[in-house]
Amino acid sequence: MLNIAHRGFSAQYPENTILSFQKALELGVTWIELDLQTTADDQLVVMHDATVDRTTDGTGPVSEKTLEEVLALDAGIHRDEVFRNQRVPTFDQVLDQLDPAPRIVVELKFFGFDAIPRVLDAIASAGAQSRTVISSFDLPKLPRVKALAPEMPLTALLKAEGRETQELISMTIDLGADTIAPRCSDIDRSLVEQAHHAGLLVRAWGLGRDQGEEMSRMMDCGVDGMTTDRPDILQRLVRERGLT
Ligand code: G3P
Ligand code: CA
Fold first, then answer.
1. What pLDDT, in 10s, does the model give residues 91-114?
2. Is the shortest distance between the CB of 35 and ligand 1 below 6 Å?
3. CA 172 vs CA 13, 18, 40, 128, 135: distances in Å
4. Domain encompassing residue 19
5. For 218-233, what is each residue's pLDDT tens digit?
6. Assigned domain for 178 exists
7. Is residue 49, in this structure, part of any structural domain at all?
8. Residue 215: enclosing H or E segment and its boundaries?
Protein backbone atom coordinates (compact mmCIF):
# COMPACT_ATOMS: atom_id res chain seq x y z
CA MET A 1 0.00 0.00 0.00
CA LEU A 2 1.59 3.26 -1.14
CA ASN A 3 1.16 5.78 1.66
CA ILE A 4 1.84 9.04 -0.19
CA ALA A 5 2.18 12.13 1.99
CA HIS A 6 0.11 14.71 0.10
CA ARG A 7 2.10 17.96 -0.08
CA GLY A 8 4.11 16.34 2.74
CA PHE A 9 2.63 15.89 6.23
CA SER A 10 0.31 18.74 5.29
CA ALA A 11 -2.30 18.27 7.98
CA GLN A 12 0.24 19.44 10.55
CA TYR A 13 2.89 21.43 8.65
CA PRO A 14 2.79 24.06 5.90
CA GLU A 15 2.11 22.24 2.65
CA ASN A 16 4.80 21.71 0.02
CA THR A 17 7.67 22.84 2.24
CA ILE A 18 10.88 21.02 3.09
CA LEU A 19 9.61 20.85 6.70
CA SER A 20 6.38 19.18 5.64
CA PHE A 21 8.23 16.64 3.49
CA GLN A 22 10.88 15.96 6.14
CA LYS A 23 8.21 15.40 8.82
CA ALA A 24 6.49 12.86 6.60
CA LEU A 25 9.79 11.02 6.17
CA GLU A 26 10.37 11.08 9.93
CA LEU A 27 7.18 9.04 10.30
CA GLY A 28 8.85 6.35 8.23
CA VAL A 29 6.72 7.14 5.18
CA THR A 30 8.71 6.72 1.97
CA TRP A 31 6.47 8.49 -0.57
CA ILE A 32 5.72 12.21 -0.87
CA GLU A 33 3.56 14.09 -3.36
CA LEU A 34 4.35 17.61 -4.55
CA ASP A 35 3.05 20.15 -7.05
CA LEU A 36 5.20 22.01 -9.58
CA GLN A 37 4.73 25.55 -10.86
CA THR A 38 7.11 27.67 -12.98
CA THR A 39 8.41 31.15 -12.28
CA ALA A 40 8.75 34.07 -14.70
CA ASP A 41 12.39 33.08 -15.23
CA ASP A 42 11.46 29.47 -16.00
CA GLN A 43 12.49 27.90 -12.70
CA LEU A 44 10.59 25.00 -11.13
CA VAL A 45 9.14 25.66 -7.69
CA VAL A 46 7.03 23.48 -5.43
CA MET A 47 3.65 25.11 -5.01
CA HIS A 48 0.06 23.98 -5.49
CA ASP A 49 -1.78 27.11 -6.57
CA ALA A 50 -1.15 29.29 -9.62
CA THR A 51 -0.94 32.29 -7.28
CA VAL A 52 1.14 32.70 -4.14
CA ASP A 53 -1.75 34.25 -2.18
CA ARG A 54 -3.02 31.26 -0.18
CA THR A 55 0.27 29.71 0.87
CA THR A 56 2.64 32.68 1.27
CA ASP A 57 2.70 36.24 2.51
CA GLY A 58 2.76 37.54 -1.08
CA THR A 59 0.19 38.10 -3.77
CA GLY A 60 -0.07 37.44 -7.47
CA PRO A 61 0.65 34.69 -9.99
CA VAL A 62 3.79 32.66 -9.35
CA SER A 63 4.40 32.68 -13.12
CA GLU A 64 4.87 36.48 -12.96
CA LYS A 65 7.53 36.34 -10.23
CA THR A 66 11.21 35.57 -10.57
CA LEU A 67 12.72 32.74 -8.57
CA GLU A 68 14.40 35.29 -6.32
CA GLU A 69 11.03 36.91 -5.61
CA VAL A 70 9.38 33.58 -4.84
CA LEU A 71 12.20 32.50 -2.53
CA ALA A 72 11.84 35.75 -0.59
CA LEU A 73 8.27 34.85 0.38
CA ASP A 74 7.33 33.26 3.68
CA ALA A 75 5.59 29.92 3.09
CA GLY A 76 4.96 29.09 6.74
CA ILE A 77 3.13 31.86 8.53
CA HIS A 78 -0.10 31.27 6.60
CA ARG A 79 -0.40 28.19 8.81
CA ASP A 80 1.05 29.42 12.09
CA GLU A 81 3.59 31.90 13.43
CA VAL A 82 5.78 28.98 14.59
CA PHE A 83 6.39 28.15 10.94
CA ARG A 84 7.73 31.61 10.06
CA ASN A 85 10.67 31.54 7.62
CA GLN A 86 9.66 28.37 5.85
CA ARG A 87 10.37 28.95 2.18
CA VAL A 88 8.91 27.78 -1.11
CA PRO A 89 11.29 25.00 -2.16
CA THR A 90 12.72 24.62 -5.61
CA PHE A 91 12.21 21.23 -7.23
CA ASP A 92 15.98 20.69 -7.06
CA GLN A 93 15.96 21.23 -3.31
CA VAL A 94 13.32 18.56 -2.77
CA LEU A 95 15.18 16.17 -5.04
CA ASP A 96 18.50 16.78 -3.27
CA GLN A 97 18.00 17.86 0.33
CA LEU A 98 15.71 15.34 1.99
CA ASP A 99 17.09 12.52 4.06
CA PRO A 100 16.32 9.72 3.43
CA ALA A 101 15.73 10.45 -0.24
CA PRO A 102 11.98 10.03 -0.78
CA ARG A 103 10.04 8.44 -3.56
CA ILE A 104 8.22 11.31 -5.19
CA VAL A 105 4.91 11.69 -7.00
CA VAL A 106 5.41 14.87 -9.02
CA GLU A 107 2.24 16.65 -10.11
CA LEU A 108 2.64 18.93 -13.14
CA LYS A 109 0.47 21.96 -12.34
CA PHE A 110 2.07 24.57 -14.57
CA PHE A 111 0.33 25.75 -17.71
CA GLY A 112 1.65 24.51 -21.05
CA PHE A 113 4.27 21.97 -22.07
CA ASP A 114 7.47 24.02 -22.18
CA ALA A 115 8.67 23.08 -18.70
CA ILE A 116 8.34 19.32 -19.16
CA PRO A 117 11.94 18.84 -20.40
CA ARG A 118 13.20 20.87 -17.44
CA VAL A 119 11.29 18.61 -15.03
CA LEU A 120 12.85 15.53 -16.60
CA ASP A 121 16.33 17.10 -16.63
CA ALA A 122 16.06 17.94 -12.93
CA ILE A 123 15.04 14.37 -12.11
CA ALA A 124 17.87 12.96 -14.22
CA SER A 125 20.46 15.35 -12.75
CA ALA A 126 19.48 14.22 -9.27
CA GLY A 127 19.69 10.57 -10.34
CA ALA A 128 16.10 10.23 -9.17
CA GLN A 129 14.52 8.47 -12.16
CA SER A 130 13.96 5.24 -10.23
CA ARG A 131 12.18 6.98 -7.35
CA THR A 132 9.96 9.35 -9.30
CA VAL A 133 6.44 9.14 -10.73
CA ILE A 134 4.86 11.89 -12.82
CA SER A 135 1.17 12.73 -12.57
CA SER A 136 -1.18 15.36 -13.90
CA PHE A 137 -4.83 16.30 -14.30
CA ASP A 138 -3.70 18.01 -17.50
CA LEU A 139 -3.81 14.70 -19.32
CA PRO A 140 -2.16 15.73 -22.64
CA LYS A 141 1.02 16.32 -20.62
CA LEU A 142 1.36 12.60 -19.91
CA PRO A 143 2.09 11.43 -23.50
CA ARG A 144 4.50 14.36 -23.80
CA VAL A 145 6.40 13.00 -20.81
CA LYS A 146 6.23 9.49 -22.22
CA ALA A 147 7.76 10.64 -25.52
CA LEU A 148 10.73 12.19 -23.71
CA ALA A 149 11.11 9.61 -20.93
CA PRO A 150 9.54 6.30 -21.96
CA GLU A 151 10.49 4.59 -18.69
CA MET A 152 8.94 7.21 -16.41
CA PRO A 153 5.90 5.83 -14.49
CA LEU A 154 2.83 7.95 -15.22
CA THR A 155 -0.32 8.49 -13.17
CA ALA A 156 -3.47 9.82 -14.80
CA LEU A 157 -5.33 12.02 -12.32
CA LEU A 158 -8.96 11.74 -13.34
CA LYS A 159 -12.24 13.43 -12.58
CA ALA A 160 -14.85 10.85 -13.52
CA GLU A 161 -17.55 13.40 -14.40
CA GLY A 162 -20.09 10.70 -15.15
CA ARG A 163 -17.83 8.54 -17.32
CA GLU A 164 -18.15 4.77 -17.11
CA THR A 165 -15.32 2.85 -15.49
CA GLN A 166 -14.23 1.22 -18.75
CA GLU A 167 -13.95 4.63 -20.40
CA LEU A 168 -11.70 5.86 -17.58
CA ILE A 169 -9.55 2.76 -17.95
CA SER A 170 -9.30 3.17 -21.72
CA MET A 171 -8.37 6.83 -21.33
CA THR A 172 -5.59 5.90 -18.90
CA ILE A 173 -4.18 3.21 -21.18
CA ASP A 174 -4.38 5.45 -24.25
CA LEU A 175 -2.38 8.13 -22.42
CA GLY A 176 0.40 5.61 -21.77
CA ALA A 177 -0.11 5.77 -18.00
CA ASP A 178 0.39 2.77 -15.75
CA THR A 179 -1.71 4.10 -12.87
CA ILE A 180 -5.32 5.29 -12.82
CA ALA A 181 -6.06 7.81 -10.09
CA PRO A 182 -9.72 8.72 -9.64
CA ARG A 183 -11.09 10.75 -6.74
CA CYS A 184 -11.68 8.42 -3.81
CA SER A 185 -15.43 9.01 -3.90
CA ASP A 186 -15.49 7.59 -7.47
CA ILE A 187 -13.69 4.39 -6.46
CA ASP A 188 -15.40 1.12 -5.64
CA ARG A 189 -14.27 -2.49 -5.62
CA SER A 190 -15.51 -3.03 -9.16
CA LEU A 191 -13.41 -0.17 -10.52
CA VAL A 192 -10.31 -1.53 -8.82
CA GLU A 193 -10.94 -5.06 -10.12
CA GLN A 194 -11.51 -3.82 -13.68
CA ALA A 195 -8.40 -1.61 -13.59
CA HIS A 196 -6.25 -4.42 -12.22
CA HIS A 197 -7.62 -6.75 -14.88
CA ALA A 198 -6.48 -4.18 -17.46
CA GLY A 199 -2.99 -4.18 -15.94
CA LEU A 200 -3.26 -0.80 -14.20
CA LEU A 201 -2.41 0.20 -10.67
CA VAL A 202 -5.07 2.19 -8.79
CA ARG A 203 -4.29 5.21 -6.67
CA ALA A 204 -6.87 7.36 -4.88
CA TRP A 205 -6.78 11.11 -4.34
CA GLY A 206 -9.13 13.53 -2.60
CA LEU A 207 -8.83 12.02 0.88
CA GLY A 208 -7.68 15.31 2.38
CA ARG A 209 -7.59 15.10 6.17
CA ASP A 210 -9.79 12.01 6.36
CA GLN A 211 -9.27 10.46 9.79
CA GLY A 212 -9.30 6.87 8.56
CA GLU A 213 -12.83 6.00 7.48
CA GLU A 214 -12.33 6.67 3.77
CA MET A 215 -8.76 5.32 3.89
CA SER A 216 -10.17 2.06 5.25
CA ARG A 217 -12.82 1.97 2.54
CA MET A 218 -10.11 2.48 -0.07
CA MET A 219 -8.12 -0.42 1.36
CA ASP A 220 -11.28 -2.58 1.37
CA CYS A 221 -11.69 -1.73 -2.32
CA GLY A 222 -8.14 -2.96 -2.95
CA VAL A 223 -6.42 0.23 -4.12
CA ASP A 224 -2.63 0.16 -4.47
CA GLY A 225 -2.08 3.53 -2.81
CA MET A 226 -3.47 6.93 -1.95
CA THR A 227 -2.39 10.48 -1.22
CA THR A 228 -3.27 11.69 2.25
CA ASP A 229 -2.65 14.76 4.41
CA ARG A 230 -2.55 12.31 7.37
CA PRO A 231 0.18 9.81 6.48
CA ASP A 232 0.44 9.05 10.21
CA ILE A 233 -3.09 7.65 10.30
CA LEU A 234 -2.68 5.68 7.09
CA GLN A 235 0.58 4.25 8.40
CA ARG A 236 -1.24 2.98 11.52
CA LEU A 237 -4.06 1.46 9.46
CA VAL A 238 -1.61 -0.24 7.13
CA ARG A 239 0.24 -1.75 10.07
CA GLU A 240 -2.99 -2.88 11.73
CA ARG A 241 -3.87 -4.78 8.57
CA GLY A 242 -0.43 -6.32 8.35
CA LEU A 243 0.15 -4.70 4.95
CA THR A 244 3.44 -3.25 3.74
O1 G3P B 1 -2.64 13.24 -5.84
C2 G3P B 1 -3.42 14.11 -6.52
C3 G3P B 1 -3.80 15.27 -5.71
O4 G3P B 1 -2.69 15.94 -5.24
C5 G3P B 1 -4.68 16.11 -6.52
O6 G3P B 1 -5.24 17.18 -5.90
O7 G3P B 1 -5.51 19.57 -5.76
O8 G3P B 1 -4.17 18.36 -4.09
O9 G3P B 1 -3.29 18.70 -6.34
P10 G3P B 1 -4.49 18.52 -5.52
CA1 CA C 1 -1.25 17.62 -6.07
1. 999 999 999 999 999 999 999 999
2. yes
3. 33, 31, 32, 24, 12
4. 5-109
5. 999 999 999 999 999 9
6. no
7. yes
8. helix 213-221
Q: Which ranges in 17-153 belong to alpha helices (H)? A: 18-26, 67-71, 91-97, 116-125, 141-148
Report CA(87)–ligand 2 centroid distance (Å). Answer: 18
CA of 137 to the centre of ligand 2 (A): 9
Asked if the structure places residue 38 within a domain, the reply is: yes
pLDDT 10s digits, 162-199: 999 999 999 999 999 999 999 999 999 999 999 999 99
Q: Which of 3, 15, 35 to mutate to test the pocket of ligand 1 (most atoms within 8 A of CB)?
A: 35
Q: Tell how far CA 122 is from the center of its chain.
A: 16
User: Residue 34, exposed/middle/buried by CB under 10 A (0-12, 13-18, 19+)?
Assistant: buried
206 alpha carbon to ligand 1 midpoint, in Å?
7
